[in-house]
């Protein structure tokens, strides 16, 4: 597919004293080299899709604001419609910004450089894999001034719509509803952006000081591999110490809430806006679970399968709370970090309703 629009800013240079030891420039170049080309489309088809996605992003956010009650009075910002390589550049830059606050043990400059190059190659490979699948993304740390950026990946939207055999006008708007919800979550909740960044920095900082203990936990991990069926999230949790696991629990609870809330909203807007919403949802759910053996293995290793489960758990929590307390009652999750649901409460919404609403 021809280049959509917009060139994302380049990621930062090789790491300094703080942040993860990742050569972000190398990660970006690696992702660009490994990225598969997008689907074939004429210039006219690409131009039509780009224009429509830009318009759909604005339409979607208006509907999301009406449905959620969030964001009234905030400016309606445009979305950036990009190709795969531009998304990869933006993704690498966003990861660099998000992890910049991690405080790591001091190592020699040579050792850090070697580690950074290896990590850069690994990050670039992962980004290249995901770059052929991501439909859209709201990056709270992207944009010219790091204030956030909504990205829609035109070639992937085009390819997914064709694969699902659903109306292109409905599918583009449906994708925009999900990403517009993510943007409102961060723009309408003032504390959320810094809370998320602080928790990520805390998790990474603890991880770098806990390497020796990880080796001690490996026998337990090996014993659990068969029981978990190779569940990537279960393995990751087993490798954590108590302090890091507590931070991981908070991060997983937050991301599960964000993804589930967005999934709920994109369907709650209703068939009057997206007439084929039920068909799209059913076919897209099957697509999330699909793929050949190599693709499914990669998805498991990258934690994508765990992410798919997050959608279901978070959406069920949102639906339960909205039915019990209405959208206004649900929106108490955004009052403060203390009103966010825990992982256990996400699986048992009644516990959150009792704690926060006394129901």
In total, the number of strands is 3
Radius of gyration: 20 Å
- Number of helix segments? 15
Strand content: under 5%
Parts with pLDDT < 50 across at least 5 consecutive residues: 5-16, 212-218
Average of the residue pLDDT scores: 82
* Strand order, largest beta sheet: 1-3-2
Which class of secondary structure composition applies to the elements? mainly alpha
Give the biggest beta sheet.
3 strands, mixed
What is the straight-line distance between the termini?
A: 52 Å
Global outline: globular
Reading the helices and strands in chain order gives HHEHHEEHHHHHHHHHHH
List keywords for this structure.
mainly alpha; 15 helices; 3 strands; three-stranded mixed beta sheet; 359 residues
Annotate the secondary structure layout:
Layout: H1 24-34, H2 43-68, E1 80-82, H3 84-98, H4 109-131, E2 136-139, E3 149-153, H5 154-164, H6 168-187, H7 192-209, H8 211-228, H9 232-238, H10 242-268, H11 277-289, H12 293-301, H13 304-330, H14 343-347, H15 349-357
Parallel strand pairs: 1-3
Antiparallel strand pairs: 2-3
Helix pairs in contact: 1-3, 1-4, 2-6, 3-4, 5-6, 6-10, 7-10, 10-13, 13-15
């Amino acid at each position: 597919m021809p280049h959509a629009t917009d060139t994302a800013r380049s990621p930062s240079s090789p790491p300094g004293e703080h942040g993860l030891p990742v050569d972000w420039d190398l990660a970006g170049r690696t992702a660009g080299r490994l990225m598969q080309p997008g689907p074939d489309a004429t210039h006219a088809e690409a131009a039509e899709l780009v224009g429509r996605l830009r318009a759909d992003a604005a339409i979607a956010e208006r509907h999301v604001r009406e449905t959620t009650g969030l964001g009234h009075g905030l400016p309606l910002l445009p979305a950036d419609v990009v190709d795969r390589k531009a998304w990869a550049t933006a993704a690498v830059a966003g990861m660099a910004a998000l992890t910049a606050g991690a405080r790591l043990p001091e190592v020699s400059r040579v050792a850090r450089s070697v580690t950074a190059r290896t990590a850069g190659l690994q990050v670039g490979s992962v980004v290249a894999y995901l770059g052929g699948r991501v439909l859209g993304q709201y990056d709270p740390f992207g944009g010219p001034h790091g204030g956030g950026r909504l990205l829609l990946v035109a070639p992937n939207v085009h390819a997914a719509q064709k694969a699902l055999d659903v109306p292109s006008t409905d599918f583009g708007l449906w994708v925009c509803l999900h990403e517009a919800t993510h943007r409102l979550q961060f723009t309408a909740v003032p504390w959320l952006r810094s809370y998320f960044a602080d928790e990520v920095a805390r998790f990474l900082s603890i991880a770098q000081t806990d390497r020796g203990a990880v080796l001690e936990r490996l026998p337990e991990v090996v014993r659990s591999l068969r029981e978990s069926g190779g569940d990537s999230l279960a393995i990751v949790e087993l490798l954590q110490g108590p302090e890091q696991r507590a931070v991981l629990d908070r991060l997983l609870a937050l991301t599960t809430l964000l993804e589930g809330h967005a999934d709920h909203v994109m369907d709650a807007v209703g068939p009057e806006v997206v007439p084929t919403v039920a068909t799209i949802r059913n076919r897209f759910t099957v697509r999330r679970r699909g793929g050949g053996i190599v693709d499914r293995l990669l998805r498991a290793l990258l934690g994508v399968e765990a992410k798919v489960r997050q959608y279901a758990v978070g959406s069920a929590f949102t639906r339960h709370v909205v039915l019990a307390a209405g959208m206004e009652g649900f929106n108490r999750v955004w009052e403060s970090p203390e009103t966010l649901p825990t992982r256990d409460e996400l699986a048992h919404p009644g516990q959150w309703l009792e704690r926060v609403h006394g129901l």
